[in-house]
Amino acid sequence: MEAHIWKGIFPALTTPFTQHDTLDLPLFNNQIQAQLNAGVHGIIIGGSLGEAAVLSLQEKEQLLQTAINTNKNKVPVLLNIAAATLKEAFETVKMAEANNANGFMLLPPMRYKSDARETTYFLQSVAAATNLPIMLYNNPVDYGTELTITILNQLAKHENIIAIKESTRNVTNLTVLKNNFGKRFALFCGVDTIAAESIIMGADGWVAGLVNAFPRETVVLYELIQQKRIDEAIALHRWFLPLLELDIHTKLVQYIKLAQQVTGLGTAYVRSPRLMPEGAELENVLNLIKKCVANHPGLPNV
Predict the structure, then answer these.
(1) What is the CATH number of domain 8-294?
(2) pTM for the whole structure
């Protein structure tokens, strides 16, 4: 597989659990197959949406093994590295390499808010520890550390850092990155609500969340923009937006899993400290999802 060809729809997969709080690997296999059948272009395991913070390294290995076996080398399979220490990051790299991962998504250090020098050192150290390609994850809104142009200029020296997941929630930052780096990095939008705008402005791909419940709709929206069928893309995006807004909620994991339950692609089980919604909250979210499903506009051929 050509590691440098990273573009298109890369689902940030949720992690399915059983009612007994164990990994539901048969369901995970089915979820991956549904994504591949819909035409996604890559897969990301153990991201924020995948509840990475509450997964053990052994569980991440089980998820990765399942994905590799199901994928059969069709698309790149990336494992997220969200580590508090370099030791933890290196252990994740070693495990993923041993299980034939195709690359990594990489966050600045967790829990401690690193300054620019510390952030650069951490990310450079991880990049130097592997030959596999890396997608940096820039999400200062949720994690408090921004990958600035100054930091990225240092990281650009590492040839295996090939992509950036841009999640500042500011669509103009995509153009800032393009102006500074040209085609040095593949740029992925990491925020569902502004993905269409970002792709129109030149993003190479979309690390998507609601794709977990609506895989074909996500792929079709991307392809319509690629084919410059903008009016059709706008119409689909307007239907999709109330669902996409679930991706920017604090409880995005719970809400997207509810959407998967409604569309038959998952269950609502989450791992503590998260709890499944109940009462009015549950009713409101389910009503939104079911209303959108009922008003589905149909999909054009792409």
Answers:
(1) 3.20.20.70
(2) 0.96
